[in-house]
Every structure is written in structure tokens, then in C-alpha cells.
């Protein structure tokens, strides 16, 4: 005569309790793989249609930035940032028309100069004014100059 399934389960629980054995093997703790395994994510950024990293930055003396076409203030949005382990950072901006472009520290956007790019957004400056734009935030218009 076969015992019902519940009886078999209860028999195993009772036997493991009597013998002091665990009912099942304990799970091992989850550990992330080493950071080096994520380098492919930096080399093939998610936000770029080409899935290719930005060209390597070359340290040189600052030069005059080329003039960029103005982008409407009401439509320029920070849609993403990428910062690698060496501290190199880029941001991706989307204009109201849907065009996207990559920017880095020192680039100009709507008259603002990008002073910093961090994981949470951009730091901008123009004259003595500073602004912080979070990821998914809009780039503000340049503030009016004070009247003397």
C-alpha cells in the first residue's frame, strides 16, 4: 500500500529533525561579478544608437569651443549620463525635435558651459550663474543679465 505524498513529506521532516540534519541545503550568498566584467557596458553604451563608446579623451590645452547651433530651451532634456571608473563622463541630450547629441565637460549647451557631469546630472555655468540639471531634467534658459 502506497503512502500519500503528505506522509512522505512529514516523514522526511521528522527524520531530519531527529538526526539534526538540515531539511535542504542552505543557499549561498549572492556576489556581484568583478567590476571589470562590466567594461563592455562602457564600450557599448545603451543610449547610443551606434552602441559604440565615445572617442578617447585626449588631455590638451583648452581651445575655443566651436559655435554650435542653438537648441530651443524648452526642449533640451538630459536623457542620460555615463561615468566610467577613470572618471570620464558624457551626457546625452535630446532636443525638442528629437535629435540627440553627446556632450562632455567644457562643451556649451544653449549658452551654458558644462562644468561637471555626475551620475545624477549636469552642473552648468554662464557668467556668474550656476545651475544643476538632473537626469531627465530640462536645460534652463540663460538668466537675464542684471540691470545696473
Shape, per Cα inertia axes: elongated
Distance between the termini: 102 Å
SS field, number of helical segments: 2
Average pLDDT works out at: 76
Highest CATH level, the class of the domain at 74-137: Mainly Beta
The Rg value, from CA coordinates, equals 28 Å
Percent in strands: 25-35%
CATH topology of the domain at 74-137: SH3 type barrels
The helix content is 10-25%
Structural commentary:
Mean pLDDT is 76; it is low at 65-73. The strands form two sheets. This protein has a four-stranded antiparallel sheet with strand order 4-5-6-7, with no helix packed on it. The radius of gyration is 28 Å and the shape is elongated. It is 14% helix and 26% strand. It contains two helices and seven strands; from the N terminus they run ααβββββββ. This is General secretion pathway protein C.
What is the fold's blueprint, element by element?
Layout lengths: L4 H15 L19 H5 L33 E7 L5 E6 L5 E4 L4 E2 L2 E7 L2 E6 L2 E6 L14
Antiparallel strand pairs: 1-2, 2-3, 4-5, 5-6, 6-7
List keywords for this structure.
148 residues, alpha+beta, SH3 type barrels, four-stranded antiparallel β-sheet, three-stranded antiparallel β-sheet, 2 helices, 7 strands, 14% helix, 26% strand, elongated
Q: What's the quick description here?
A:
Keywords: Signal. This protein is an alpha+beta fold.
